[in-house]
Amino acid sequence: MLFSMNAIVPLACVTAAALAAMVAEAFRTPGERMPIAPLGLIGLVAAGIATVLLWGHGYVSFNVVAGDDFGLFVTGVLVVIGLLTIAFSPATIEREQLPAGEYYALTLFAIAGMILMAQATDLLVIFLALEVLSLSVYVLTGIRRDSRAASEASFKYFLLGAFSSAFFLYGIALTYALTGSTHLDRVGQLIAGHTFGSGAMETFAVGLLAVGFAFKVSAVPFHMWAPDAYEGAPPVVTGFMATGVKAAAFAAFVRVFMSAFGPLSAIWVPVLWGLAVATMILGTVVGVMQTNVKRLLAYSSIAHAGYLLVGMVSANAVGRAAVLFYLLAYGVTNVGAFGVLALLESKDRPNDELRDLAGLWNVRPGLAALMTVFLLSLGGFPPLAGFIGKWFIFTAAIQSGYYGLAIIGVLTSVVSVFFYLRIVVMMYMTEPEPGRAPLSAPIVPRLAGAALGLATIVVFYLGILPTQLIDLATQSVARIF
Amino acid sequence: MVPLSQYLILSAILFVIGTLGVFVRRNLITILLSIEIMLNAVNLTFVAAGRAFGAVDGQIIVFFVMTVAAAEAAVGLAIVIALFRHRESLDPDAFTSLKW
Amino acid sequence: MQGWLSIVLMIALGAAFAVGSVVLSGLFGPRRPTPEKEAPYECGVPPVGDARERMSVKFYLVAMIFLLFDIEVAFLYPWALSLRDLGWTGFVQIVVFMLILLAGYAYVWKKGALDWGKERA
Q1: Which chain A residue shows the shortest CA-CA distance from B57?
Q2: Residue C39, SS3?
Q3: What homologous superfamily does CATH list for C54-121?
Q4: What is the ipTM of this complex?
């Protein structure tokens, strides 16, 4: 019995840290300072070690949580995202007077939900994991209770999130009505065995699940919540939800559609093709018009969801591995970019308008340089992580014969470079407007500095020596699909 | 016995009613109730399908969905209260600090 | 009719407990009436006046906490019914479940969400 628990060890580590954070906050006397952030870091490091130890064993717990390499790869990505997020958090918590215990407990619960979502092999468990992570992130979005924008953002996110969960759940219900099971393997066998045509029930089930996932990964036309939620949340939280939620949702998306609904690919490939094209184009075009950096990065993250969808549509081994690699590259880069924004925020103003960044190079050359690295990686410049990710994805599309997707992807990438470079130009070559107070030089806490350094190293490492991780990603998809 | 297809049609109708409610109603509490109707339409599908298969999974799943719905309602109402304190309004069209 | 006997017993015991506690407290309890105590019971709200007055948010808070714990406890019933089949594995799982709930309860309690009267600093 004990050995069947192996696959949930990473999940258990994070959950235990979350519970400990919550209880510690409960028993804290007002005004007492507690090292809750290190608690979270310990839990995440333990989860990371467990992930490495479980690699290649393929344990399954309770028949619904799989410790296969695919799930573990995403778990590893989530652990890295979680560590960076927690490292950036103390500055924000201090400045905004946020309740630290609740903040870390919610972050850790969200990571636990994400890990479960990446490893679950049963539709019901995927739904539960999705809710655990969503409910935590809704609250994190609105954790600045005195801010009007934050509570509005959190409400919009909640409303559309709950709405999309209902669609997702209805998709599960129809799958269950069709096959009598919610377990992915069983559903897959039954669908393959019955050679279901394009009957109405199958189409509805696949369509509803796709809508549910599309909401969570903010694919056009289900992206409306993303810019508002990203702008209203504190930048650290925005970075966390732009990467972690997306990674977990894409992991489950790939697992559900490629394993259980693989035989129905004739139904879903055209749908995802349309979503991918719309997402890449709208994310890029609207992104060009933004003047707020957080909103700009929100549209950029929508465009990135489009590239990830291209990897899914390709539906070959390269495509799946490319999605995994891209999640890592995009995750680290984006958390880093939002981390810089979080450090630039000051008590009296958010400093998230494009013109606020004018002259950052003179005030804080280090932060400006790091931000440049992250932005160029998002734009897909070699030799950075983003370039390899995009190259990998478009290779997959070309191998499967989706030349149109690859061309649209490359074109939108080129356009997107415009708005990333706009920020860079603002930081290096523009003087602050005369009427506006110049940026005050922020103090960078040691932990946040270390996290920024780590993110930069990973971005360069993935860009210059990607082979090792590409091999890992390829390996991890080869064994299960 | 009522055949499965009729339950499925009923739950589809309920789901559509809930969906329309989310779009049409102009009060946050009513919108939350509409989402609740959607979830219960799904529950009906689960129970009916489970009964048709002669399995209890359907009912067990409904237990989990109810739990999730309760948690969602708690978080949702808490967020609505936080919002109401800033705005003194429950009309979603009043919330325009962020471009929609 | 054998099977119904237990139900009749159950009803009789329930009724006896309800009537008994009212009668006994009437006989032995001290009576110090105040206007509030004499007023018809309306769940803590003044019985006469505008029904559309603002409610304290604490009603909502307690109701929500009740709802959440109530629905979690509902998971115990299916477990209790299949106790024998699940054995020690099931027992350990339900204990873990209850411990997680307990952590939530401790949090709610220590945060003062259950305190009614005094304002917490």
Answers
A1: A181
A2: coil
A3: NADH:ubiquinone/plastoquinone oxidoreductase, chain 3 (1.20.58.1610)
A4: 0.92
